Amino acid sequence: MEKKVILIKDTGFKSDTTRDIQSLFLKAIRDIGAEESIQIVRAADLGIYNQGVVVKILPDNTVYTHINSDNIDQIVKAVHKGEVLENLLLKDRVEQTRIVLRNCGVIDPENIEEYFSKGGYTSIAKCLFDLTPAKVIKEMKKSGLRGRGGAGFPTWMKWSFAANSFGDEKYVICNADEGDPGAYMDRSVLEGDPHSVIEGMTIAGYAIGAKHGYFYIRAEYPLAIERVENALKQAYERGLLGKNILGSDFSFDLEIRLGAGAFVCGEETALIASIEGKRGTPNPRPPYPTDSGLWKKPSIINNVETLANISAIFQKGGDWFSSIGTEKSKGTKVFAVTGKVKNSGLVEIAMGTSIKDIVYNIGGGVLNEKQLVAVQTGGPSGGVIPKKHLDTPVSYEHLQELGSIMGSGGMIVMDEDDCMVDISKFYLKFCVDESCGKCAPCRIGGYQMLSILNKISEGEGELEDMDKLHRISQAMQKASLCALGQTAPNPVISTLRYFEDEYKQHIIDKKCRAGKCSKLIQYTINPDKCKRCRLCVTNCPVSAITGDREHGYTIDQEKCIRCGRCFEVCKFEAIARV
Amino acid sequence: MEQNTTATGDVSFLVEKWRDKKGSLIMILHEIQNHYGFVPRDISLQLSKLLDVPLARIYEVITFYNYFKLDPPGKYTISVCLGTACYLKGAPEIVDEIKNLLNIEEGQTTEDGLFHLDVVRCLGCCGLAPVMMINGQIYGKVKRSEVVDILSRYKKED
Question: Deepest in the core among A134, A171, A327, A534, taking most CB within 10 A?
Answer without folding.
Answer: A171
